[in-house]
């Protein structure tokens, strides 16, 4: 009886509660979620909590190492650069550009990708064939290379970088959503919907989307990880954010000549990029494992 009651209690939980119970059992994914949340908060609140202005110069404190170094200064926890600017303040502000704009790009990609992917999934004939061939062509080009091509057309700049990332991520997102839609359309419950005379919108909203939204969340995390790397790479190549913008890739490019003299000005933005991508991938892997567990159940 106790076993039955336990099963009954579990079955009475909401889908979100069951989802969270399975997700939190994956400890690396939970660590990734905490890191991801910290970066999200930092991206939103950096201008309010940064100790100094991003371009505020301290002429008496040029190339001060981090505070834990014997030559460090407690006023500058992560040191200063060659212009006397506080590294911590610039890195915190850079989260708004690298991480925050990556989220914006991934969200816009998700909205557009779901709409176009759904249209591609329910289309037939010439329209479906044209979209498939177009996707095959664009998918053969790596996202970063495609973004560079788009930047070459639009011109360098931070906002052009965001649009380039969106356009570069769209083909893979559309392809994934289309495959999800096609897979669901071949299932028996969709046939039952059609026999009941349900409209396409009713089938999508009541049947297909409730079964694929979790997959879309996983695809979103993958797109976000790629967006973070691509925005930083374009900034490093001086095709994206331009100095003195504090985007992490642009900071790396700006301080590359100081790598031997002041390695913290290069190493710290690289560590933040690593942690941002790692946290996103950990959350994505956790979501994928939960989805696999639900399929097994």
What fraction strand? Answer: under 5%
In CATH, the homologous superfamily goes by the name: MetI-like
Low-confidence stretches: 1-10
- End-to-end CA span: 22 Å
Main sheet record: none
Number of structural units classed as domains: 1
Shape: elongated
Protein name: Peptide ABC transporter permease
Membrane topology: Multi-pass membrane protein
Transmembrane segments: 97-122, 134-155, 216-237, 257-278
Family: Belongs to the binding-protein-dependent transport system permease family. OppBC subfamily.
Explain what you see.
This protein is mainly α and 297 residues long. It has a single domain, classed as MetI-like fold (Orthogonal Bundle). 74% of the residues lie in helices and 0% in strands. Helix 9 runs parallel beside helix 10 (248-254), helix 9 packs antiparallel against helix 11 (264-296) and helix 10 runs antiparallel to helix 11 (264-296). The protein is elongated, with a radius of gyration of 23 Å. It starts with a helix and ends with a helix. Mean pLDDT is 86; it is low at 1-10.
